[in-house]
Design a protein that fits this description.
This is Heat-shock protein. One of its GO terms (molecular function) is ATP binding. Keywords: ATP-binding, Nucleotide-binding. By secondary structure, the protein is of the alpha+beta class. It has a domain of about 190 residues: 2-Layer Sandwich (Nucleotidyltransferase, domain 5), CATH 3.30.420.40. It is about 40% helix and about 20% strand. It is built from 14 helices and 18 strands. Strand 12 and strand 13 form a beta hairpin. The protein is globular, with a radius of gyration of 22 Å. The termini are close together. The model has no long low-confidence stretch (mean pLDDT about 95).
């Protein structure tokens, strides 16, 4: 039997394999030489599905079929057991996740040369905010899927704790660290006491001073940026002919939310838009919205907004070309726009960190290090919120996409090695 650590993320997934001991653990190459693979799956009308970058490429190249991204975000929601059309059949979202994870597991087994039967699965501190029962259902669902794809023993570790275990491997002295793991779907925080000596201990519950999290991640920043800067170009906030009414907003919020996009492709939406067009003051805007939905290009739009968001970490302004929607159409997005539309999300992240420090019984000055992992820690509003929580702490940049997977593999070595 072989054990592994599996970080199934909203945006990306990694899987760590064990060698002859914890010092020899490494992330598996899941797509070519890449150790990360996007959490995406593409179903063509016939034949086998593609996952990861290949799935995204098939969609971008215009191949017929269905792209699904941010698969993890349905855990803890009513969507999990809903079915969705895939080619000539319907699959539940649970079955879609199982197909994706089975493919990831198979690639890792091909590299390692043996079956993987034991897994430490990463999980956010909260799958669902303020709903312990929903949180339990989400973990149970993920455990059930893991068993469906062939894992006999399944256990869980909080993702920020896993990141702490990876960080601790390089320490030469004791310190108290605030671990910030901001991924595609959740923001998770832990205050942990770490040291080389403590790293050798099997039982670490006493070193975990506090855990907290909030269901905010990179996809939420995509959504708010899209709603604020792009969706008005497609009619959001525009008036109806009847005074005092605006165009219904639900279409735009679904189009801006990764896990909801495919719901617009059921045929009913286009019929509704044809009726709506006769009742709005600016029908040309609804024509743009209909063009995106009719061409099933919602994910194209979401990916372009995501790329713009990421680019704003490096440059001040992005010109988002939307000529594929309508010739000459474009959206200008600057850093102030990102900051304005994400202000509430950043505030909620800061509040969560403050609560975590309070639960740990520590003032901000007691934190020696801020360990940052997850792609969304690169976003300026997020980074500012984290650094403001412990301004005197040393900032440590973790492996943006690999720290959690490596830490889960450290934990797998302890539990199953």
């Amino acid at each position: 039997m072989a054990a592994c650590g599996l970080d199934f993320g909203t945006s990306n997934t990694t899987l760590g394999l064990l060698g002859t001991g914890p010092a020899h653990l490494a992330l598996a190459r899941l797509e070519g030489e890449a150790v990360t693979i996007p959490s995406a799956i593409f179903f063509p009308p016939a034949g086998d599905e593609a996952i990861g970058r290949a799935a995204i490429a098939a969609y971008v190249e215009g191949q017929p079929g269905r792209l699904m991204r941010s698969l993890k975000s349905v855990l803890g929601s009513s969507l999990l057991d809903e079915t969705t059309p895939v080619g000539r059949r319907r699959l539940s979202f649970r079955a879609v996740i199982a197909r994706y994870l089975a493919a990831v597991k198979g690639r890792a087994e091909a590299q390692g040369g043996e079956a993987l039967t034991q897994v430490v699965h990463g999980r956010p501190v909260h799958f669902v905010d303020g709903d312990p029962e929903g949180d339990r259902r989400a973990e149970d669902a993920l455990a059930g899927i893991a068993r469906e794809v062939g894992f006999r023993e399944v256990s869980f570790q909080y993702e920020p704790i896993a990141a702490a275990l990876d960080y601790e491997r390089g320490l030469d002295r004791e310190e108290v660290a605030l671990i910030a793991d901001i991924g595609g779907g959740t923001s998770d925080f832990s205050v942990v006491r770490l040291s080389p000596e403590r790293h050798r201990a099997v039982e670490r519950a006493g070193d975990i001073l506090a855990n907290d999290g909030v269901r905010i991640g990179g996809t939420d920043f995509d959504r708010t940026l899209s709603v604020g800067q792009v969706m008005p170009l497609l009619g959001l906030g525009s008036p109806m002919r009847r005074p005092g009414l605006d165009v219904p907003s639900a279409y735009f919020h679904d189009l801006a939310t990764w896990s909801q996009i495919n719901r617009l492709y059921d045929g009913r939406t286009l019929r509704e838009l044809r009726t709506l067009r006769r009742e709005v003051a600016r029908p040309e805007l609804i024509d743009r919205l209909a063009a995106v939905i009719e061409a099933e290009r919602g994910h194209t739009l979401a990916m372009e907004v995501e790329d713009a968001k990421i680019a704003l970490s490096e440059i001040d302004r992005v010109d988002l070309p939307l000529g594929w929607v309508e010739p000459g159409l474009r959206a200008e997005i600057g850093r102030p726009d990102l900051a304005r539309h994400s202000a509430d999300l950043a505030r909620r992240i800061g509040t969560c960190i403050a609560r975590c420090l309070r639960d740990a019984g520590l003032p901000p000055g007691a934190i020696d290090a801020l360990f940052l992992t997850g792609g969304s820690t690169r976003l300026a509003p997020v980074r500012a919120a984290i650094l403001a929580a412990a301004p005197e702490a040393r900032v440590v940049e973790g492996d943006t996409f690999g720290s959690v997977g490596l830490g889960l593999t450290v934990e797998a070595a302890r539990r199953y090695g």
